[in-house]
Amino acid sequence: MSFHDDCLVLDGHTDLPTRLWEAPADLGRRLADRHIDLPRLREGGVDALVLALFVPAALAPDTGWQHALTLHRLTLAALPAGFEAVSGVEPLRRAVGRGAVAALFGLENGRPLLVPGALDAAAAMGLRYVTLTHWKTHEWCDASTDEPAHGGLSAAGVRLVREMNRRGILADLSHVSDDAVRHVLEVATVPPVASHSSARALCAHPRNLPDELVREIARRGGVVMANSYPAFVDPAAARAEDRRREAAGAALEALEQDYLRDPQARWRERDALLASHPLPRVSLAAFVDHVIHLVERAGEEHVGIGSDFDGIPETLDGFEDVTRFPDLNAALLARGLDRAGVRLILGENFLRLLQEAERRAA
């Protein structure tokens, strides 16, 4: 058995549910139009992944919650033999021991938690983290890519974070403003996760975390999981993404409502718009730079991987889909991390955090 096969490999953030909503497919077959399917997961030695129920910022809380429920139902129905949906650490380890790929669920954009009963339902569904917002500030949390309204969290946001933690659900700090990160660190009763955020010191995108907050998340026992989207990894790609938003942003917004009504008809139009303004190529080595940087600031016990696969329009050269996790493993070892540290980063750190949330909830 190779060292990679001996690791429990977990991808902490994927958008497989949204990809299924856009383009239903048989995940038991190798598929040309996405980053994740069962044959690819087997080839890449990936044992578990978090499936994000992504709620677009344009959806009001009631509509957004219904959308999250729809994504959950269709994803459960679409998972072929070889996957097991789980909600806890020990069930995950048992599923992996049986040779299955374990699937956890999270909610990406916590705005729908304003709906009465939604948080209890999220806990009953086994959701393990909530990304508090997405690209837009909403009623209770400020976003990193929008104007602030609350100085972090509103009073309702403080209550929701505490109630999430009480139910064993992690607060996910990706997408939130720096002040919201600080606010969550003040009020959370369980260490948080940043499920798909890289290092702002290496790529000054507001979606990435500054060193100060990386250290503070680690000090509180949390985990920062590096995101592989090229615009969050490389400064030139980040600038190109800014130009793309300037050139195509209005057209993308105009398409959004039609996309939400009929994604199967419209996702190709959206992707064509993005492809008409491509990002420069970025290498796996640049992503490894981010992982190493996070390890140097937070410690190897507080870093993970949240690829954002099936939710990003471009991927890294050398990390194009989940088959390339062995290459990431080898690259981390080549950069001087020892096997124990790589094992933590590839999955064990996130599982430790989930187990702590379970312990405190119990």
Brief rundown of the structure:
The chain is 49% helix and 11% strand.
Run of helices and strands: HEHHEHEHEHEHEHEHEHHHHEHH
N-to-C span: 37 Å
Shape descriptor: globular
Biggest beta sheet summary: 6 strands, parallel
Which runs of at least 5 residues are low in confidence (pLDDT < 50)?
A: none
Roughly how many Å is the radius of gyration? 19 Å
Overview of this protein structure:
The protein has about 350 residues and is of the alpha/beta class. About 50% of the residues lie in helices and about 10% in strands. The chain is built from 15 helices and nine strands. Helix 9 (about 210-220) links the parallel strand 7 and strand 8. Helix 2 (about 15-20) packs across helix 4 and helix 11 (about 235-260) runs antiparallel to helix 12. It is globular and about 50 Å long.
Element layout with pairings:
Layout: H1 3-6, E1 10-14, H2 16-22, H3 38-44, E2 48-54, H4 61-78, E3 83-85, H5 89-97, E4 101-108, H6 118-125, E5 127-131, H7 155-166, E6 170-172, H8 178-187, E7 193-194, H9 211-219, E8 223-226, H10 230-233, H11 235-261, H12 263-275, H13 284-298, E9 303-305, H14 325-334, H15 339-361
Helix pairs in contact: 2-4, 11-12
